[in-house]
Design brief:
VC0802-like, elongated, six-stranded antiparallel β-sheet, 6 strands, 53% helix, 229 residues, 23% strand, alpha+beta
Length: 229
């Protein structure tokens, strides 16, 4: 029994590390025998044993699929309901500045105060840096406050898609993962993700923004059609 539990844990960890396979497993859209054969060497390496029976792995995969399906079905319904109640807002002509904390921290209060009426301004503090997403037309003013000789990293030609969701987003896991997954599958890179209460702000290249907006709007429309009320 101890070995069996260990194998179950190992198989689960392997599957969770492969998002595309995990998605198919949750949906029951996978050949369990073929998947068992594909991962048997990984299981043996992680377990430190040889000769693991492929049929044993297949049984574990079937049980794991059933459990994941039951666990995630309710979350999926909640995600669809939140998405159905969400709306999108688009902001273009943005830039992203990343500046070491030591340079900007003494000036951050002044920056926020003087630019508080800007069309778009988001300031995020990291461990050693600040990232500022702002409307392009106020970049020069921002740099004059920060100090024009202050070193910074610039991402130009950026846009923001703001997903404004119902309050349930605060207590429901998975929505951000779902949304970012949709964009990732379409080859869209997200420069920054910012969460602000009910707003999920996705910063993407302006060259990708209309494609990203269309994908997300289509997802919202589908959610409104198929979600459980």
């Amino acid at each position: 029994m101890h070995v069996r539990r260990t194998l179950t844990s190992i198989v689960r960890d392997i599957i969770i590390s492969r998002p595309s396979i995990l998605t198919c497993l949750v949906k029951g859209l996978i050949n369990y025998s073929a998947l068992a054969r594909d991962i048997v060497r990984d299981v043996e390496r992680e377990a430190g044993i040889r000769g693991v029976n492929v049929n044993t792995i297949k049984v574990i995969l079937i049980r794991l699929s059933n459990k994941l399906r039951n666990d995630l079905r309710s979350f999926e319904d909640q995600i669809l309901r939140i998405l159905a109640g969400s709306v999108l807002r688009l902001e273009t002509d943005l830039v992203v500045l990343t500046i070491n904390r030591e340079y900007i921290q003494p000036r951050i209060a002044k920056l926020v105060q003087e630019l508080r009426n800007a069309r778009f301004l988001q300031v995020t503090q990291g461990i050693s840096t600040y990232t500022i997403v702002l409307a392009k037309e106020i970049m020069n003013k921002a740099l004059s406050i920060i100090g024009e000789k202050t070193p910074y990293e610039l991402f130009d030609d950026q846009s923001a898609i703001v997903l404004i969701s119902p309050r349930e987003i605060l207590t429901t896991p998975g929505l951000v993962s779902y949304v970012t997954g949709l964009l990732a599958w379409s080859g869209i890179n997200i420069t920054q993700i910012i969460s602000c209460y009910l707003d999920t702000i996705l910063i993407v290249s302006t060259s990708d923004v209309m494609k990203a907006y269309t994908i997300l709007q289509s997802a919202i429309t589908s959610a409104r059609k198929f979600s459980i009320k």
